[in-house]
């Protein structure tokens, strides 16, 4: 299943607005999937805010995938790779060779970033374990894709555990979307313009998402799962 949508959306008010539009675009593609087999993973931090709206509309479980990019030592904003849960690391080896970073240098950078990733994961998840993705359809959600480095790491983490994976974002560089599609990954982007430039350009409000916001969203999602398990959840679509 491959899909890419360039709907009549020009920009988003905020991440919540983007999440609602994204969820409605996803509905036809997940209509036949039992909701207990569907899980929405937001890439922390910003992607969790979008994913919370997606999960609510789809009637799916919400969780987070804490990923962190590995920045170049001379240009920290330039991603040479990324790390994800369970020791996953993806690297842009061509870029690393062009910059001239040694293997030892890459390993040192990775160790530092992974330590920070684990610390953030522990804080955001409040000690809750990673979700069991076995047999699930996983929807990986971020607020947008510029280079795709962190999404590639999240995909590597999810695809070897889940039954199937969908990448869904409000906006993305078309080159990044094309790269995922060439791998046979189901992808959805509402806005994928040739003049992409940056994620925040397509939002009226693109404030930084705080740890506290993510913790609150995940805590509420965890309570909903607990209620469902106890038989008290009466939400439609379950």
Q: Total helix count?
A: 7
What is the ordering of alpha helices and beta strands? HEHEEEEHHEHEHEH
Low-confidence stretches: 233-238
Strand order of the largest sheet: 2-1-6-7-8
* Helix proportion range: 40-55%
What is the CA–CA distance across the termini? Answer: 24 Å
**Strand content bin:** 15-25%
- The overall strand count is 8
Examine the secondary-structure arrangement and name the CATH architecture of the domain at 15-67 and 133-229: 3-Layer(aba) Sandwich
Main pleated sheet: 5 strands, parallel
Could you outline the blueprint of secondary structure elements for this entry?
Layout: H1 15-30, E1 38-44, H2 46-58, E2 61-66, E3 68-71, E4 79-84, E5 88-91, H3 93-99, H4 103-125, E6 137-141, H5 149-159, E7 164-171, H6 174-182, E8 186-191, H7 211-229
Parallel strand pairs: 1-2, 1-6, 6-7, 7-8
Antiparallel strand pairs: 3-4, 4-5
Helix pairs in contact: 1-2, 2-7
Summarize the structure in short.
This protein has helices at residues 15-30, 46-58, 93-99, 103-125, 149-159, 174-182, 211-229, and strands at 38-44, 61-66, 68-71, 79-84, 88-91, 137-141, 164-171, 186-191. With 238 residues, it is α/β, with parallel strands linked by helices.
């Amino acid at each position: 299943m491959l899909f890419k949508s360039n709907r009549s959306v020009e920009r988003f008010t905020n991440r919540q607005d983007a999440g609602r539009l994204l969820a409605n675009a996803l509905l036809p593609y997940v209509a036949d999937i039992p909701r207990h087999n569907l899980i929405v993973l937001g890439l922390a931090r910003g992607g969790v805010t979008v994913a919370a709206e997606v999960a609510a509309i789809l009637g799916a479980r919400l969780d987070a995938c804490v990923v962190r990019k590995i920045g170049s030592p001379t240009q920290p904003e330039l991603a040479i790779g990324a790390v994800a849960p369970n020791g996953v690391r993806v690297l842009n080896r061509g870029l690393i060779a062009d910059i001239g970073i040694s293997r030892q240098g890459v390993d040192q950078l990775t160790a530092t970033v992974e330590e920070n990733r684990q610390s953030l994961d522990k804080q955001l998840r409040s000690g809750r374990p990673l979700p069991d993705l076995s047999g699930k359809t996983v929807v990986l959600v971020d607020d947008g894709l510029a280079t795709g480095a962190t999404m590639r790491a999240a995909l590597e983490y999810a695809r070897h555990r889940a039954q199937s994976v969908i990448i869904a974002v409000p906006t993305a560089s078309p080159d990044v979307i094309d790269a995922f599609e060439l791998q046979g990954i189901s992808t959805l982007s509402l806005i994928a313009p040739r003049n992409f430039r940056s994620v925040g350009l397509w939002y009226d409000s693109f404030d930084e998402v705080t740890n506290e916001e993510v913790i609150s969203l995940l805590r509420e999602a965890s309570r909903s799962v607990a209620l469902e398990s106890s038989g008290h959840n009466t939400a439609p679509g379950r």
